[in-house]
Amino acid sequence: MSARKSERIMNLTICLLMARRFLPRESIREAVEGYHGLSDAAFERTFERDKEELRAMGVPIETGSDSVLFPDEVGYRIRRADFELPPLEFSAGETVALGLASTVWDQARVADDMVRAVAKLRAAGVEPDADRAAHLAPSLAAHEAAFELLWQATNSRTRVRFTYKGVERVVEPWFLANRRGAWYLLAFDTTRSDRRLYKVARVEGEATVVGEAQAYAVPEIDLEAAFAALEARPADLWAVVAIADGRAPDLRRRAEPIDGVAPAGRSLFRLPYSEERDPVGELAAHGADVLVLEPAALRAAVARHLRGVVGLEAS
Questions:
Q1: For residue 287, what are the CA distances in angstroms to 70, 81, 231, 267, 279?
Q2: Which tens digits make up the pLDDT trace of 176-221?
Q3: 227/244 same-domain check
Q4: Which end of the chain is more exposed for a tag (fewer CB within 10 A), N or C?
Q5: This model's pTM is above 0.70
Q6: Do 153 and 221 belong together in one domain?
Q7: Does the N-terminal peptide bond of residue 295 adopt cis geometry, omega within 30 degrees of 0?
């Protein structure tokens, strides 16, 4: 969302929130600076889109009229009681979990959303405590070239065009999910008229948006069932990894401890994986906490991935 659009929508929210009565369109048009200078048709289109975006964000815009003489004259407002959050109370364990959640994201654009969420919690009197359980925190990275655009398109419900396995696809992004270090996009493929699951790292070339935001509705869907196919794929390969003591608990739960000489401060594990669901992204996301020892090809792939990440960060 552009800065100008964000400012306009924020001003519209404040305008409707501060209103003591239902505001007609013309009053809103005069009060919100972002609507100044628009033609009648442009204002109508822009105002309708802005209302839909606010409602999609969960902002309760109420429609009605205060006029006894002209009851058909529609106005708009936001009731403060419906808009404001109720008092927030969390147990000690929940507060720790919220603190951990705030440390998970290390991709800059997504981290902005997390920072804002934590700021809101602190404003409500909740101080997320990440330090108390820092050793349990997972690490989610999002360095795939197409990730940021797909993330924004998923949030704004905008169609996307990209090439996947040599075939051009136009999809309606529904959900992005991380499964064992790899990002997957669940989307409706408009060219095949069917739901599809795409591994984001395998999107070829540059992804581009198609059309405008709020172009489709996301259906009710069982996400666990949708991603169950990934879990069902058998592990037919094994990696030997050295995990730093007290780190990467998610890997430790799936891996098998093995005997051998490990680097100081580390333990050896045998980790199952499949060729279809390669673990490169997951292993690289743990950084120096996890060293891949075998096989050599996987070790080299993780090293290449990390070098690519360093290059992205440097740029």
A1: 66, 46, 24, 16, 13
A2: 887 766 788 999 999 889 999 898 888 888 899 999 999 999 888 8
A3: no
A4: C
A5: no
A6: yes
A7: yes
